[in-house]
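This is your field. Have a critical look at both lines of this record:
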Amino acid sequence: MKTATMVLAGLYMLYLAWRIATARPIGSGEQGSHRPSFLGGFALAIANPKAYAAIGSLYVGSLVEAEQGAYTTAAKVLVLAIVAVTVNTTWLAFGAAIAAVLRDPRKARIANIVFALLLLLSLAPLLISSPLER
């Protein structure tokens, strides 16, 4: 079952890389394109499964026990909030910085290919690990 899941996940990642590499560049003057609304972005943030996975992995790595007290629990929640704000602010700044590049069709094509290759590169540890390590 584990091997089948890994194969399916790997195939899905290859599919995503292909879709990213072959995606049409965004045109600044395309018909039908519009600026996303705050509400749309907020809904996407709430429904983002990657955020839940990241927060879940943080919670799994940091146990909160009853005898630790409210101050320790509050400190852990504060650290989590700081990490979330820092990551989201950095992602926002990166998105704003790269937006101009993605409006140029030639540069956008190059960026799409680079992003697809980076996605494939992220699979390298899975592909080169021995079956015993999995």
